[in-house]
Write a structure and sequence with these properties.
Length: about 180
């Protein structure tokens, strides 16, 4: 059972704001798009398995079409050549969309401080939540999804049209 949003209740009625109702629906029906390139992807497979069961969070519907998903999960080492691909996948997702960098490689390049590895996916797309670890355990990945749920649930419906958000996208060359 999900928790009821803040509001006013009495006998036979409950009233709250549209923001909170939409936030409640969105946060409990996140569709992840796994962009897994290496070992951290294996941890994600365990996270989706019956023991950890990401479906408990309304996220069992993993999609491989960016147009159907709202949470990009980048897991693994991203070579500089793949940076534009990550960005293209992000651009193909409809708003509102969120991003988790899972594992040290996606967060900061990890142990691969080399000429060929992107030193963090936040060089090409804005990241909402960073999950540290090499690899992070499934519990840490679930914690990252829960942090995204917090952001989704509290996000104002107007945020995506605001100047601050537009400025953030422009800093990544996204109109
Ligand atoms: S953070 Fe560690 S486990 Fe994850 S992809 Fe990089 S090297 Fe592999």
């Amino acid at each position: 059972m999900v928790e009821m949003p803040e509001g006013h209740q009495g006998e036979g009625f409950f009233a709250t704001s549209l923001n909170k109702v939409i936030g409640l629906a969105r946060k409990n029906s996140i569709w992840p798009l796994p962009f897994a390139t290496s070992c951290c992807g294996i941890e994600f497979m365990a996270t989706m398995g019956s023991h950890y069961d990401l479906a408990r969070f309304g996220s069992e519907r993993v999609g491989f079409s960016p147009r159907q998903c709202d949470l990009l999960m980048v897991m693994g080492t991203i070579a500089k050549k793949m940076g534009p691909v990550v960005k293209q996948v992000y651009l193909q997702m409809a708003e509102p969309r969120w991003v988790i960098a899972v594992g040290a490689c996606a967060c900061s390049g990890g142990i691969f401080d080399s000429y060929s590895v992107l030193q963090g996916i936040d060089q090409v797309v804005p990241v909402d939540v960073y999950v540290p670890g090499c690899p992070p355990r499934p519990e840490a990945i679930i914690d990252g999804v829960m942090r995204v749920q917090d952001l989704v649930g509290k996000e104002s419906l107007r945020r995506r049209n605001g100047q601050e958000y537009k400025g953030l996208l422009e800093s990544y060359g996204i109109q």
